[in-house]
Amino acid sequence: MIKQSLTEVKLITIRMERIIVAEDNKLVLETIFHSLSREGYEIIKANDGKECIDMLEKTEVDLIITDLYMPFINGNEIISIVRDEHKKKTPILVLSAAGAEAIVLKAFELGADDFMVKPFSLVELNVRVRKLLAARK
Amino acid sequence: MSRTKLYSWKLITRIVCVLLGILSFQPVYSSDSVYYAVQLAASKEPLDIGRFTRRYHITESIKEIVSEDWHRYIIGKFENLRTASLYASEIEIKTGITGAFPRKVTEPVPQAEVKPDTVSKAKVQQSDTAKIIRNISDSIPREKKIIAVPSALPRSSTPHRELNQLILRIIGDKNVNQTKNELIEYGKNHFPLAFRKIYNNFIERTYTYPIVLIFIILILVFIINLSLILLIIYNTNKFKNKKERYRIFYRNYYEEVLSLYLFDINDWNTTVTKLKRLKKPENRRILTLVLLIFKENLRGEMDAKITEIFVRLELNKDSLKLTKSPFYYKKAQGIRELTNLDPKSATNIINNFINDKHYQIRTEAQVSYVRLHPESPFDFLKNLLSPFSQWTQLSAFHIFRLHQIPVPAFINYIDSAQPNVRNFCLRMIIFFQQFEDATEIFKMIESKLETSRFLAIRAINDLRLYDGKSLLLKIYESEPVVNRVEIIKALRNIGDEEDFHFLESVILTGSVTMKVEACRSLYYMSRKGEERLTQISQKHNINLDLYLAHIKDPRN
């Protein structure tokens, strides 16, 4: 009896890896949500940068996936807030339709860990997410 | 109700009726009185009777008969034709008027003897003999000449006159008439005879319908117009918003349904059942748009599934129909949809549009070609009959880079008949550093086009084609300044000590830009070049310090 209850306690403490996705395009947001949920991650959806920052203040996450151009607070600002204000080392993956060298470099300079240009492959996204989470551990 | 109140009410009613144009009041005549008179004159336009009577020294009262657009002026009242005829002869002798003749006059006698307000209240009686007759008294001074109405007739015989009188009562008829006379007088003194008639006519008409009335009508028309415009804007907006809400609703709905299918949560049959209003063309457009958004954001394993949805729902047929549309934007839309969502169908039709007459269709087709033929994305350049515009070049280049299409050898298209294709190829050769076939680039140095030669010089410079140096120096003298500067710049990379003399001559004789570039080339070519600059400065006693400071500045 005692052994069984100990196993239960152990199971409860293992939490799913939590990813926040900030994306103003609802279709992309839903697609990423479906794709990553199937991989077994807990997904928090944020429709813009402001919502993402609010969520980050309330919840602990393992990975941030953010679009670059969003209303209120853009992707670069999210990176700056997380790195400079929250002082967190949470991995950040940036998604953007703009793949110009200067834009990518700026995101990396601010503290992004990875960059994907749209249109992107969901398989590739899953692989990158897995790699970033593994690196965090 | 008091008499004044009743009168005011009647007037208001009349104004409304006149404005609406639905009623016309005329006095009622019970019977006609017949007599004979002498007609002195007749005219389509009313005559200035004051002037007329003064000219012919007529002292008797003249009546005006207005009928069938004619103004007839008669004098006298006789029981028979004979006496009237005698009077006509007498008048001719007395006044000198020629052509006066006797005529029968049927003068309507108004009903009700009878106050004017009761007459104006009466209904209209249509009568052929009904004519408006006015007495014109010459005894009234010219400034105050008013048409004198027989006492038995009502003062206002037509609705517009009644309204005029009301307005005259408000603003004062004395003032209006005075202004009118002053204007006519002004016309007499200042305008030529030919123009005066038009001017007088205009003044007469303006004061027949006083300016206030015109203003009121204009204001009403303006208010009605404004209301109509506001109503149209309101309804258009309402309709557009409704349409937009409908689109947003179905877009979100279709996105949700299709997402579930794409992630294998729902099977095909469930998805089709859930896709409501599929037969409506508007909804089919929305569905195509949703698929395009999917395609824009996702690639890889989803590609085949998105195309499958597009084809299974027969949306490709709609897009094919669009490519046959007479409207260019629909054609372009159809090409874009097929390229993104059904590449196989697009490949079959795309060649038909590569040389289309319409610039935008052509552009769309050419960009699509790049996307659809990754193995030879620019092969269409070989068959291009129309210019390859800069916008198309940019779009094609963007698609080419975005989809990571393998780079072809652009030298293959450099002998195109289209000069802008050749220029595009040179730019691409420079960009992708394709120096395999330098001879083709050297050939471009002989091009008739300045831009092509400029690009060829730049290619020789950027690709470090040392064999091209002698060619550049050969053409230097015959080139325009821009190309000369480019040649000087090229010498920095492909030049050597042999070119010191040439660069020195440029420093001594060239323009400021040329001097700067020559100094830069010498300075950066080698250590010896730098020394040569000091020598030139000393030998020719010229100060090159500023030039050197400029070229050494990393910002330049």
Which regions of chain B are unreliable across 5 or more consecutive residues at pLDDT < 50?
A: 17-31, 110-157
Overall pLDDT of chain B, averaged? 81
What is the total tally of β strands of chain A? Answer: 6
Q: What is the CA-atom radius of gyration of chain B, in angstroms?
A: 47 Å
User: What is the helix fraction of residues of chain A, given as a range?
Assistant: 40-55%
Number of helices of chain B: 25
Biggest sheet statistics of chain A: 5 strands, parallel
Amount of beta strand of chain B: 5-15%
Strand order of the largest sheet of chain B: 4-1-3-2-5
CATH architecture of the domain at 28-153 in chain B: 2-Layer Sandwich
Report the strand count of chain B.
6
Q: What would the principal axes of the Cα set say about the shape of chain B?
A: elongated
User: Mind telling me which CATH architecture of chain A this is?
Assistant: 3-Layer(aba) Sandwich
Level of helix content of chain B?
55-70%
Secondary structure class of chain B reads alpha+beta
- The secondary-structure element order of chain A is HEHEHEHEHEEH
Radius of gyration of chain A: 16 Å
Q: What is the name of the CATH superfamily of chain A?
A: Response regulator
Distance between the termini of chain A: 33 Å
Question: What structural category characterises the helix and strand content of chain A?
Answer: alpha/beta
